[in-house]
Amino acid sequence: MKKWIQEKLNGVISLGPRTLPVVGSIIVISFLILLALLSLYQFMDAKYIARGVSVADIAVGDMTPFEAKLALEAATHAFDQKEFVLQFKDHEWKASPPELGVSFDVERAVTDALTVGRSGPLLSGVKDRLAALLVGKRILLPAAVNKETLDAFIETQMKMIEIPVEDRIIYYNTKTKSFWINAPSNGKTISRPTLIQDIERFAEDHFSTGILKIAITAEEPKISEREALIARETAEKIADTKYALVFEKKKYFLAKNDVLESLGFVIAKDRSRYYLLPIFKNEKMKDVIAHLAPDINRDPVNAVLDEGENNTIIETSSGINGIQINIDETYSALQNNIVKSPETEIAVFETPPTISKVSLEHIGITQFLGKGESNFAGSPKNRIHNIKTGSSKFNNIFIEKDAEFSFVKILGAVNETTGYKPELVIKKGKTTPEFGGGLCQVSTTVFRVAMYSGMKITERYAHAYPVKYYAPHGFDATIYPPHPDLRFVNDTPGKILVQSVVEKTKLTFLFFGEHDGRTVTITGPKTYDIEKDGSMKAWITQEVFKEGKLERKKTFWSVYKSPSLYPVVKNPYE
């Protein structure tokens, strides 16, 4: 019977030579159709995570990445409300995951979930999708612990269970005036790596929290007795060294007490060797360096300019860079030299002067425009002082293009607090002492340089009577804040630099800027109607030409009364 059944079965499934190719073709076509259907399914399902995929225990299959991200963020938010229990002997602390620095990489988990069934060859993807559908596919939600956050929790909540190691260190005994080595002791600390590993394991395992047993790591001193003895010998050599900070060949020796108070040691490592590295403590030594600033620092000195050939600019005195001590760099250099050299160069910042021939070229000031001079020979010392103080207010100032210059505005307040002394001024029918007497010497000289430079004068007044310091008469300008004032307009193509120079009893003002080819003719001053009582009249004319044509002409008239009408009042300040 068994043989018969076998023969019948063989007869059913036996394939003749004609039927074998047909069956094979049907199998191949069916397989290709199946692959096409699976490919179409993959294409139509491209926006969704494969069915059966979960992240941790959160099912994300058939979700878009955005939906999966929202689901996982909701789960992590719920996890943040839970608590870990940290135990050490009979001590216990509770902490939420954020307090321990726990965070999750949701983006990475969603990306990993989306790649299920989409990576590698088509058949491999089909296999992964079928496996996820039939038995499920679990993706890990990566967790991490921020060490700084964890350290902060330990520092504030659990510090009492840690004992810091006491390493060998060198200190200076002020009573015995010698260096000592302290006695070392072992310490113990919470094992951060172990604690982090346990927290991450709990977090990644179904968003769970639990009891964390705190592991303690014993710490031994790193510095051996031999290394401590070497460091003490180094400290003694440092104490006997005369350290000096050097600048421009001048030496500033450090006081021994400053060296001793600044000296310290830090633990350093060279391969497997721990040793004590000598340092100068930051705060103390930087204070010592800073105290040298008044002797080192200096402001930049501007160049003094004058007229060169063909209205060019020359430097009669070159500018000098300003210097400011660089405390941080000097400290670093001293630190580096602590065992190398007793002398350290002081590092400085250099600041170039604002005014120099080169710096002016960058802003278009390349030519000499004009010069005005006056002589104050015979002036009393207070008047000389006021002239020097007042003229300094106008030295190295700029007048912008098309701006109207106001002498009184730039001069500012004139009183004892601004550096002036009492001297004679013409005021209310009297010649009386007042702070700032003599400043008209400055305004007169500015008036002259403005005239010679071809400026458009918009306000100018002569003195009440002829003053010897302002000869030739008719070429003066009186001022008294707030009025009268001396004003003119800068109608040159660019800004103007003003410089003032006092040499012995001569005051000079110079204008530098950009020449527009103008030429200036000054006629006068001419005096007339001169009377025996000293009264007189005068005039002076300014003519400005451009390309040979007269552009502007203005005559300034002066009427001087007799000096006898303005009696000198006794100086109440003498």
What is the overall silhouette? elongated
Q: Strands of the largest sheet, in order across it?
A: 22-30-29-23
The tally of strands reads: 33
For the biggest sheet, the summary is: 4 strands, antiparallel
Task: Write down the Rg.
Answer: 47 Å
Report the portion of residues in β strands.
25-35%
> Which residues form runs of ≥5 with pLDDT under 50?
none
**Mean pLDDT figure:** 90
Structural class by helix and strand composition: alpha+beta
Helix content range: 25-40%
Query: Count of helices?
Result: 16
N-to-C terminal Cα separation, in Å?
A: 155 Å
Quick synopsis:
With 574 residues, this protein is α+β, with helices and mostly antiparallel strands. The chain is 32% helix and 30% strand. The longest helix is centred in the first third of the chain and has 26 residues.
Question: What's the arrangement of secondary structure elements?
Answer:
Layout: H1 2-13, H2 19-44, E1 53-55, E2 58-59, H3 65-80, E3 84-88, E4 91-95, E5 102-104, H4 106-114, H5 122-135, E6 137-139, E7 143-145, H6 147-158, E8 170-173, E9 178-181, E10 187-190, H7 192-204, E11 211-213, E12 216-219, H8 225-239, E13 244-247, E14 250-253, H9 256-262, E15 263-270, E16 273-280, H10 282-290, H11 293-296, E17 304-307, E18 313-317, E19 322-325, H12 327-336, E20 343-345, E21 348-351, H13 357-361, E22 367-375, H14 381-392, E23 397-399, E24 404-406, H15 407-411, E25 422-427, E26 430-435, H16 440-452, E27 456-459, E28 487-489, E29 496-503, E30 506-513, E31 519-528, E32 536-546, E33 549-560
Parallel strand pairs: 1-6, 3-11, 13-20
Antiparallel strand pairs: 1-2, 3-4, 5-7, 8-9, 10-12, 13-14, 15-16, 17-18, 19-21, 22-30, 23-29, 24-28, 25-26, 27-28, 29-30, 31-32, 32-33
